[in-house]
Write the structure tokens for this entry.
Amino acid sequence: MPLKIFAGLVAVALMLAYLLPLILKLKEASLAVVVALGIVMMLRDLWQSLRTGDS
């Protein structure tokens, strides 16, 4: 389980680092909504995978 948590945190950090330039330079609100939805879906998937008992 600790390895799963570590891998999830690394994945979140890498995705945020990848999207950070896009987030900082967005000019259109619709793109901001798409990026925000992508981040929320990724975090929800991470939460669900950590809640399951299988390793």
Summary: Helices lie at 2-24, 29-51. DSSP finds two helices and no strands in the chain. Residues 2-51 form one domain. The chain has a mean pLDDT of 86.
